[in-house]
Specification:
The chain is mainly α. It is built from 3 helices and 2 strands. 37% of the residues lie in helices and 4% in strands.
Amino acid sequence: MNEPTVDVAALAELARLDVSADELVRLGKELPSILSFVQSIENAPTEGVIDTPVLENVMRDDVVGHESGKHTEELLSAAPQAKNGRVVVKQVISRKK
């Protein structure tokens, strides 16, 4: 099998990687064998391989457990501060004006 030729410097530039000269030499030697291995995997026979089963959602249905607002007053009374039917909390994100 012919090893593919790879311009490692151009590839590194496209990927915006800073690669030293020593690394370019090392990668230039290693990359063709890596690509050959990937090609051998792509050419592997797949006859008789069992397809994965279809996945099913095994979680419960989303249903409303109680009518909206049933516990609102109880929850608001337990909060340290409440205003206009909402819990008052400290602002942690500032908005630009």
